Amino acid sequence: MQNFNFCSPTYFEFGKGSENKSAELIKKFGGTKVLLHYGGGSVKKSGLYGRVVTSLKDGGVDFVELGGAQPNPIDTLVYEGIELCRKEKVDFILAVGGGSAIDSAKAIAAGTLYDGDFWDFYTGKYIEEALPVGTILTIAAAGSEGSCNSVITKGKLKRGASGEVIRPVFSILNPELTQTLPPYHTAAGSTDIIVHILERYFSNTEEVEVTDRICEGLLKTVINQTPRVIAEPDNYAARANIMWAGMVAHNNLCGVGREQDWASHGMEHELSAFYGAIHGAGLAVINPAWMKFVSKKNPRKFEQFAERVWDIKDKNIDEAIKRYEEFLKSIGMPSSIKEFGAKEEDIPMLAANIGLTEEYTFGGYVKLNIRDVEEIYRLAL
Length: 381
What we know:
alpha/beta; six-stranded parallel β-sheet; 47% helix; 11% strand; globular
C-alpha cells in the first residue's frame, strides 16, 4: 500500500424528504445569498424545484437562479454563472440535479473567486479557492456529490479539474428523487458507478486488500441492484443502495493508497465531446474494450476480478469480460461506438484529441500510447 492522505468532509443528509432541509443546511454552512443552479424542466415537473424554493423562502435564505445545466455541461453556462454570482454577491451555490449540474456548479464556484479564466483549472491548474457548494442529487451516477472533481466541455474538449475546496460541504441524497428516471439513464448511471470503481480497482499496487474488498463489494452490489430498479423503478431499497454506492465509488475511499488508471474515462470523454454520448453509455462500450486490450498485457488483476466479482472459480478472464458485457447489454447499454455515430475513420481524430503520442502515455494499470488507444477504439466499434 502506498502512502496517502484522505479527507472527505462532506455532510450527507440521506433519506425521504431530505430536500426539505435545504435552507437549514445552507445556513449551517454559512450561506446567506445562494445561487440555485439546476438543469431543465424535470426538477420543476417532479415538484422538487418547488419544494426547494419553499424551503429557501421559509428559511429566510435569499437566492438567485440559473437553470440550463445539461449533460456534458458546457463552459458558456459556467461563464454566465460566474458573472451572475459576482453581480449578485452570491456566497453559496446549491446544485439541484445530477453530475452535470453539480460539476457546472463547482466550476462556477471556483471561477467566481478567480481573477483569470476558469478554464485554467481544466487545463492543469489546481483549484485552491472556491465558494462553498451544496448539492441535491437526482441521479446516482457521477459521484460528484461527494468528490473533489468536476468535468466541463469547451467546444470539442471535455476536461476535468480538481481541488478539495470544490468538494461539496453538504449533499442531500433522497433515493425517491431517482424513481422517475428513464431506465436508460438509470442504467447509464449504474455503469458510470461501476467504472469509477474499476478505474481504481485495476491497479498494480500490491497488498491493498482493504480497498480491493471495498471495490468488489460495491461492484457486486451495483450489479445486483441495477436490474431490480430497472424492473421495479419505485423500489426504494434498491435505489438507496445504488445511490450510496455511487457516492462511495467516487469520493476516493476506494482509491486511497493505490495507483489508479482512468484511461477508460479519458477515452470516453471524446465520445461525449464529439457525439454527445451519455457518459455512462460511452463507458459501457469503452471499458470492456479496454479490458480486452490490457488484460492480454497484464492479466494478474483480471484473474482476481473473474473470481471475486463474477464467481468464476477457474479465473477465466475472457469469461469474466464476456459476463460483464452481457450484464451491460441486459440493462440496456450500447455495445458499439457506432451507436453514437462514430466511424472507423474517426478513430485517429479521437485518439489525437486526447493529446497522446507514441511517447506520451496515460493510464496506470497499463500505460497506453496513441496507437494503443486507436486499437481500443477499434475493439469498441
